[in-house]
Amino acid sequence: LAKRGEAEGALVITERQTRGRGRMGRQWNSPSGVSLLFSVLFRPPFSLDRVFSLTMLVAASLVDAIREMSGLNALIKWPNDIYCNGKKMAGILTEFSADGTAIEYVVVGTGLNVNWDLRNERELQHSATSLMNEAGHPVSRVALLSYFLELLEKNYRLILMGKDALIRDQWNRCSMVIGRQVLIDPEGEKKKATVTGIDGNGALLIEEEGGRASSIVCGDVQVLFPSLPGNRD
Fold first, then answer.
1. pLDDT in tens, 96-133
2. Contacts of range 3-12, beta carbons closer than 8 Å, 24 or more positions apart
3. Which residues fall within 8 angstroms of residue 134, CB to CB, at 6 or more apart?
4. Average confidence score pLDDT of the chain
5. Is the distance from CB of 141 to CB of 36 less than 8 angstroms?
């Protein structure tokens, strides 16, 4: 749709996906009728180095929507996952096309476990969860999606006005890794560090053992020590 010129703001949603993708070639699985599985098309008028702001935009808006609709303390795990009580609840995948440094389009895909009961899923029950499992009751997917889209539009306007810092601050407040010691695997070389935040382009800011400050653009992050009460890792 993006390649054919579909207008910005297009929303594609499905009840079931058969080839759900995550970062680094991983799969995203979900049975039919219990999750929110959707993609949003953006055509932002800014340079390629700001594309991660759209991942932040979707993550921050989704966390706020989850908290408002269910009361759950959802948190963001850099770079693109939503966790609750130490288990993964949602994943976000951002893909784009660019001409040089100018963005042609960005598609942000999201998979959110809403009313999927994962307690009896042998392979997933210890690592994944859903809104229903955490809240103890089903959550309206239509109401949740509607509220999320309202937040998304409002926050996107802030980005278009150059107020990315507001979204970044919100992202940082909802982060499950800031201030925590983590194991990072940026390019096949594992190292321990303490996360201090993210910068304007979405890179993870860390303080390595010995006090050296640096940043990570991509890679996996594993939290090493127990989280705050109510958020198990």
1. 999 888 899 999 999 999 999 998 888 887 889 999 99
2. 3/97, 3/105, 6/41, 7/41, 7/43, 8/41, 8/42, 8/43, 8/105, 9/40, 9/41, 9/42, 10/40, 10/41, 11/38, 11/39, 11/40, 11/41, 11/149, 12/38, 12/39, 12/41
3. 70, 72, 84, 85, 89
4. 88
5. yes
